[in-house]
Amino acid sequence: MNEPIRILIAEDETIIRLDLKQLLEENGLVVCGEARDGVEAVELARELQPDAVVLDVRMPELDGIEAARRMHAERPVPIVMLTAYADRPLVERALEAGAFSYLTKPFRASDVVPAIRAAMLRHAELLAARRDLAQRPTPVELSLRSPSGNVYPLRVDRRADGTVDVGLAPDVPIDGPV
């Protein structure tokens, strides 16, 4: 039997948080924690280890983007950003911080639940790819060409924890200034 998906919600507006909780629970998800600000969200993510997190972008103490960055740095988890703001730089910052999906308010179950499931699927694919790379016995060597035409040989070594070391490939001449 499959365990229900455990969700952490971080939303500073109580009414929206309660609506979101009800919506998720009506769709078979379990809300394992609720945070009113970004600091509380990071602490609850650490303590509860949810399967996914839904974060508002604009929250007191610590915004959702920085909260996502901190959560992702400690323990990568699928994150869905939920906000009233949809300007491109904000969306890009959220995705760079580790969000897997980005939804704007007002939200509907037909938007939020699929976004959570998609984020979980993309997250699982990312972890599988990291595990696959970690098991490769040899590093990956590649060459990057700069816009000015210079070629830089790189070597990428994957550590067992999924992080990478990137450096110049040894014994390969560089075609261009360093």
Largest sheet: 5 strands, parallel
- Going by CATH, the homologous superfamily of the largest domain would be Response regulator
Fraction in helix = 25-40%
CATH class of the largest domain: Alpha Beta
CATH architecture of the largest domain: 3-Layer(aba) Sandwich
What would you say about this model in short?
The chain has 178 residues and is α/β, with parallel strands linked by helices.
Detailed description of the structure:
This protein has 178 residues and is α/β, with parallel strands linked by helices. It has 5 helices and 8 strands; from the N terminus they run βαβαβαβαβαβββ. It has 2 domains: 6-133, Response regulator (Rossmann fold); 138-178, no CATH class. The protein has a 5-stranded parallel sheet with strand order 2-1-3-4-5, with helices on both faces. The chain has a 3-stranded antiparallel sheet with strand order 6-7-8. Helix 4 (88-96) links the parallel strand 4 (79-83) and strand 5 (101-104). Helix 2 packs parallel to helix 3. The termini are far apart.
What's the structural blueprint in terms of helices and strands?
Layout: E1 6-10, H1 14-26, E2 30-35, H2 38-48, E3 52-56, H3 64-74, E4 79-83, H4 88-96, E5 101-104, H5 109-134, E6 140-145, E7 151-158, E8 164-168
Helix pairs in contact: 2-3
Main traits of this protein?
alpha/beta; 2 domains; five-stranded parallel sheet; 5 helices; 39% helix; 25% strand
